[in-house]
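Holo model, pyridoxal-5'-phosphate. Inputs:
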Amino acid sequence: MSTFENSLENSSALKYLRPEILAMAGYTPGEQPKIQGLIKLNTNENPYPPSPAVYKLLKEDFDPSLLKLYPDPVASELCKELGESVGLGVENVIAGNGSDDILTMAFRCFCDKDRPVACVYPTYSLYTVLAGLQNAECIQVDLNSDFSLPENLLEKIEKANLFVIPNPNAPTSNLFDSKTLEKICASFKGIVMIDEAYADFSGQTSANLVKKYPNVIVSRTFSKSYSLAGARFGYAMAQAPLIYNMMKMKDSYNVNMMTQKVALASFRDKEYLRKTVSLIIETREKLGAELSSLGFKVEKSSANFLFAAPPDRDGARCANLLRDEKIIVRYFPGRMTGEYVRITIGTPEQTATLIAVCRKIYG
Ligand SMILES: Cc1ncc(COP(=O)(O)O)c(C=O)c1O
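Output:
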């Protein structure tokens, strides 16, 4: 055991920590390797650069002297435009340092040891970690084997105060039908949080449910479709009383000034978003067809990634063999996911290399 590892277990300061923090594992983010020349398809980043409007803003228009000031604490200009785009007001939108920040606020607001959270399995693994931080029970309900929602979902999540569900789901890539989600919003006696991190690749949103249901929160991110993972911007939409109270849980200046400007410039460039999203969808469909022809089981994707099981149904082996060829994909060991790898959609060139490597391994 190294001195560092030894100190992690034996420091006299450990007794001051909340027991649930000591007991939990913490979230493991996808790897950000420093090695040059890798094809990085492991964290669902966008392969295309941000909008040219972002370059112009940072190179020509942004005045660095402004950085001496604090940013707008609630990103009002940005939130106003985001809200208006779906018929909502600025009072219906809260900005976050990425949508993980939004999720953190929601878990802090709605979960504690007496208020369980519910989610499906498999899903975004941050949810169980955030539940752990709140010392809240996390009720995980298995999806069907085709990753659709089980019939008895509402019954199983009945005890929860918050139900959080990505749509499209991650890592399984499938889209849940909006009518079914609306039924859950109407019947569930708690908050329904729909995490739309990948919604721009699906052509579907539940933003319309916000006006209709006082218990619905829809969150979004600029990390995927807007190519701004490094800038960290996400937001949530809900009725004003929920937004008002979530504001109490946020860091005072949680979205920095440059990010507010960059996100706004990017949001206004609708044509660039449309173009890059269509390219990714086109590449996704092509890659899916190629992998299927090699014997992969490819789940129907509505996101910017594929969830695909190789012909031998050994996801770990596949991830390792691809890594040997300098292609990094994400592998999730465990029940229902271990047969698969999750592959972010890259550029057509990266995809051509991936296909050639897969042909070599499995052809
Ligand atoms: C389902 C889902 N929600 C939220 C996020 C967080 O995105 P960000 O914090 O970059 O906005 C991710 C990131 O991969 C995700 O997969």
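The chain has two domains: 30-49+271-362, 52-268. The chain has a mean pLDDT of 96.
Archived with the compound record.
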